[in-house]
């Protein structure tokens, strides 16, 4: 049997304790791989500190008084959404990239992880983004989109299925 970390308990303890540094450090350690991943995507590990601020802000704001936030999935999705939003903000202000790839955003947030959150959780912006993207796709593009983001096939697998390059899948 696997020991599961109770994020609800950790965040509750963080909010109630006097020693916030140690309590937040436990939470930070859990999300360090996520912060590192997006810092590397931005091209500099120093961006991890900006992303850590987004994590801190999310932990402070997360509405744990709502019943659905007793479930780790909601807490994880809320925190990840906050970190991804900061990543997008940083990547747009960075001017290193000409634009922030919508495909990267969708890939990094997992299309299906947000489908079950529509019951009052703040996912309206995401579903609107996905709907706008899907409405502009051809039948072939939609099929590739579905394989990639709904069914989880890799770009290489899809390229092999259609006999196209991996780069063509990414377009």
Distinctive features:
single chain; 171 residues; mainly alpha
By helix and strand content, what is the structural category?
Answer: mainly alpha
Question: How many strands?
Answer: 0
Count of helical segments? 9
Strand content: under 5%
Fraction of residues in helices? 55-70%
The H-and-E topology, N to C, reads as: HHHHHHHHH
Mean pLDDT: 75
Overall geometry: elongated
Cα-atom radius of gyration = 18 Å
Low-pLDDT residue spans: 96-102, 108-123
Largest sheet: none
Q: Report how far apart the termini are.
A: 42 Å
Walk me through the structure:
It contains nine helices and no strands. It is mainly alpha-helical and 171 residues long. The longest helix has 23 residues. The chain is elongated, with a radius of gyration of 18 Å. The N and C termini lie far apart (42 Å). About 13% of the residues have low confidence.
How would the blueprint of this fold be written?
Blueprint: H1 7-16, H2 20-41, H3 48-61, H4 72-94, H5 102-109, H6 124-135, H7 139-150, H8 155-162, H9 166-170
Give a brief rundown of this model.
By secondary structure, this protein is an all-alpha fold. Helix content is 67%, strand content 0%.
């Amino acid at each position: 049997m696997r020991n599961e970390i109770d994020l609800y308990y950790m965040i509750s303890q963080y909010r109630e304790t006097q020693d916030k540094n140690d309590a937040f450090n436990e939470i930070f350690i859990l999300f360090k791989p996520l912060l590192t991943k997006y810092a590397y995507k931005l091209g500099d590990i120093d961006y991890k500190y900006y992303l850590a601020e987004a994590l801190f802000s999310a932990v402070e704001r997360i509405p744990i008084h709502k019943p659905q936030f007793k479930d780790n999935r909601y807490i994880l999705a809320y925190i990840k959404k906050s970190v991804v939003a900061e990543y997008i903000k940083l990547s747009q202000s960075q001017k290193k990239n000409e634009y922030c790839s919508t495909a990267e955003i969708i890939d990094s947030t997992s299309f299906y992880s947000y489908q079950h959150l529509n019951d009052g959780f703040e996912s309206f912006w995401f579903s609107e983004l996905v709907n706008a993207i899907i409405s502009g796709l051809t039948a072939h593009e939609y099929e590739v989109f579905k394989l990639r983001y709904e069914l989880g096939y890799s770009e290489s697998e899809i390229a092999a299925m259609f006999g196209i390059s991996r780069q063509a899948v990414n377009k």
